[in-house]
Amino acid sequence: MIMEIARKEFVCLIRDGRFKWAIGIMFLLLVTSFVTGYQRYESLHSIREASQQKNSEQWLNQDRKNPHTAAHFGNYAYKPQGPLAFFDNGITNYAGSVIWLEAHKTNFAQNRPAQDNGAVSRFGDLTPAMILQILLPLLIILMGFSAFAGERESGTLRQVMSLGVSSRALLLGKLLGTSAAIALIIVPVVAITTLVLGFGLPADSSHLGERGLLLLGFYLIYTLAFLLLTLGVSAISRTSKGALITLISFWAMATFILPKAAADISKMVVPTPTYSEFYHLARQTSLKGLEGAKGLLALPQGRHIEIERRNLLKKYNVKSVQDLPIYWVAYSMQIMEERDYSIYQKFLGDLRRIFFRQEAMQDRFGLVSPMISLRSLSMAVAGTGLVDQERFNQTAQDFRIGMIRAMNGELIENTTMKDPLYIGGKEVFSKVKPYQYSEPTLSESLEGQRMNIAILLAWAIVSAVFAFVAVNRLRVQ
Amino acid sequence: MLEAVELRKEYGQNVAIKGLNLSVGPGEIYCMLGANGAGKTTTVNCFLGFIRPTSGRAMINGIDVQENPIETKKYIAYIPENVMLYKNMTGLENLRYFSRLGGHDYEEAEYRRLLDRCGLQQAAVEQHIGGYSKGMRQKVGIAIALAKQAKAILLDEPTSGLDPKSSNEFSELLLELKGSGVAILMVTHDLFRAKETGTRLGIMRQGELVREMNADEVSHTEVEQIYLQEMQY
Q: How many Å is the Cα radius of gyration of chain B?
């Protein structure tokens, strides 16, 4: 009986002219998003690869010079994207993708695509993820709002219920039938994604198959939750018009208003320091000392250097830095670099915690909007979320201090105050290996996503319970 | 087969049915007459389990409808005043769908034969219901009821919208079903058709069954006179 109802539901849906239009538009949008997503990914990927390669060549082939000057010449770290970025580009547009790594200065990531775009970019890129997160629920609503209410209005529900069909069988049949119609969208999406990932994209990713399956699973749970919610609302609504208004209102709240409100509220509750505030505080701390720190970091910069100088003189048993067998100027610069690195690590860590707290606060809004939970999960699995961005920032800063250690180390070991001249070439610069980004493992990507997984599952379960309760109270009149 | 025992339905202050006692046995056609709002359709809805009675019981084949709504529906078929079907499906597809929901499946030829028996033109069988007239929909509704092979049939103004020829054919169908032992409860305003096909006639007024008579004991004129007389109160 359930299969019979499902078959009828599917047949009626695909014969409905409105459905044909809706699914046609949806399909076109998805194809467009796949094409643009692929092109964007492919183009950015090749630009980044080429730029990183060029940067390495420039570093190695720069003119012979003092190694510290070479550290000022610097390096660039480009954030590579995982293959799933074409499906969901996450925060890529709003977070920088390249960092200039130079001596004495800790820079933030630059080149945010959103800076180059107009107001339209506020709606986000047309990606498959965006369409599935926002437009698929709308399609589900349009397909299902009249499932029960419409049948009640037209009188067919009375006809069906007079045959002894249980309301539970009716719900399951409608669920299956509508799901089969939705599969007309989902199956091509999965097929195209698999093809693109399997053959089309130039980059590798760890656990790509698992990531793809997880994405599919999360999107299916989201689809199921919306479908059950739609059927439940249709069952309790007196009219199909009432059901449509209720569902569209919820959709608008869940996909547009609440995500924006969640972002604004999280920034209000956990404010982000401005760029100048951050640097001013970090600079002042470097000069005056880090409060609460142990050892030399707690001291003002001048005293820190002085103590290091005394320790060094004592170590080499000399009275003046002029008599040291190493180059004091380079040594003191390295002390400053290490000091600033530690202090900036502290402040960058604080900033990172602010971002993660903001994200966690936004994720709590998933309780009222399943899209918020899905969005976070989708970004995390696609490798375009905050975890990936912060990993890039951290690995780039680690690369930076490594580069400076190597260059200053050359000076420290090979020159003295009496003979400070030292010019290095490729043999020196090659001691700095090219920047390599290693993406988080799948479990690292999913770390911090437990709440979103739980909320998404809860949405599906609560929607199912709601739908069954609603149909159990189904009235034919 | 169909039995109402002290059946009562109240909507707030309004009483739709006042302690109705009624019994329709196998091979019997009970025609329920009465003005609009007399409680006829409410009675049918109680048998269908669509309305929960305030007190009393509606029973089908000895089973209380409220206690076992799904089980009791196995024994009945229902034809409403306006048979509503799925517009995006053909008459044949609608019949097949409803028949399968009712627990019966046939070869396509049998479905076509059923539709033909109910007077639906062959050309209409493959047409979408969206293009059907009310009478054509009624015929499909009758075919659905026949396909169910139910022991009892509930009819709520079934000939509404049918042309005289189709109405007559429908009456013949009812008599055929009666002959095969089906219990039929028909709500109707058509006194002539009630007298022609009914075994017993009942007149309802303001929720009460005020008069019952055997159809073969009264003439058409007497039925009309009794009906008008009861309506004057």
A: 18
